[in-house]
UniProtKB/TrEMBL annotation, chains A, B:
Lineage, broadest ranks: Bacteria, Bacillati, Actinomycetota, Actinomycetes, Propionibacteriales
Protein keywords: DNA-binding, Transcription, Transcription regulation
GO CC, alphabetical: cytosol
Gene Ontology MF, one: sequence-specific DNA binding
Record InterPro entries: ArsR-like_HTH, AsnC-type_HTH_dom, Dimeric_a/b-barrel, Tscrpt_reg_AsnC-like, Tscrpt_reg_AsnC/Lrp_C, Tscrpt_reg_HTH_AsnC-type_CS, WH-like_DNA-bd_sf, WH_DNA-bd_sf
Protein name: AsnC family transcriptional regulator
Length: 149, 149
DNA sequence: GTTGAAAACCCCCCGAC
DNA sequence: GTCGGGGGGTTTTCAAC
């Protein structure tokens, strides 16, 4: 994997801020022609540097007002931990990070209510044979900000 | 805030999976005309349910291979905690969540190296007058998955 | 709220530099 | 790697149902 040059970084930054920006506008911002920008974006996509595009959502309005971070640890530490595979089909789990520290994984989950969280935690424990530690998010001042590149 | 109906939820789900999907394709998926889909998307944007669109990036390829969760707590708990405002101009901070529990906020940060993380933590402590606790991410099996709606 | 059509715009490919 | 052009598709608006 070779480096990503300055102009590509600018394109990436612009697309992180507005994933639907047109190639025409990207060209105006970067000083390149539409074709040149288009080709660069396609190469960024092919190289996997841009993995895709997504809508940024208001989860509260969508009926999932409760976010939490769930740290998990196997009940039986002698067994291999396949939690990511075991939990991948639980749609309430938005993200799964393997982490250093006392616990193996940190999950970010979104649910409709405290009771839905309770039920989800039971499901996670049962499926992956883990203990859970949960930190409830009260509010989110900011999220999904553009990268420092 | 009124409810979001079924067809709107489907549109949101599709745009979460592919933020650049055309209105034509959205119409084919939902069984609506292009115009009807377009109008619904615009209303979802105006209502703030769709806050925007963003590119999903490979941070490793972009030179930010190290992700961490940084929990922060004021040195002086008697003072009001304005950490989000104090830290908002630090671009390495991708997200800031106010949380229940022993600490006040959880930050998600992306940096180039361990030494860059060390320097960032010093900057966070100095700017917000907080103590920090850091959990380093080793790998991310999945992230930014489509919501369970 | 949905439809269908029309016009402007953009995407996308191609050849040339 | 970048530029410019052209055909085809898409976005966007609008009147009508």
């Amino acid at each position: 994997m070779t480096g990503v040059e300055q102009i590509d970084r600018q394109i990436v930054r612009l697309l992180a801020r507005n994933g639907r920006m047109s190639y025409t506008d990207l060209g105006k911002e970067t000083g390149l022609s539409t074709s040149a920008v288009h080709q660069r974006v396609r190469r960024l996509e092919q190289r996997g540097i841009i993995k895709g595009y997504t809508a940024v959502l208001d989860y509260e309005a969508l009926g999932l007002p409760l976010t939490a971070f769930v740290s998990i640890k196997p009940i039986d530490p002698s067994q291999p931990d396949d939690s990511p595979e075991l939990l991948v089909d639980i749609p309430e789990i938005e993200a799964c990070h393997s982490v250093a520290g006392d616990e193996n994984y940190i999950l970010k989950v979104r649910v409709a209510s405290p009771s839905a969280l309770e039920e989800l935690l039971a499901r996670i424990r049962a499926k992956a044979n883990v203990s859970t530690r949960t930190i409830v998010v009260l509010s989110t001042p900011y999220e999904q900000r553009a990268p420092a590149i």
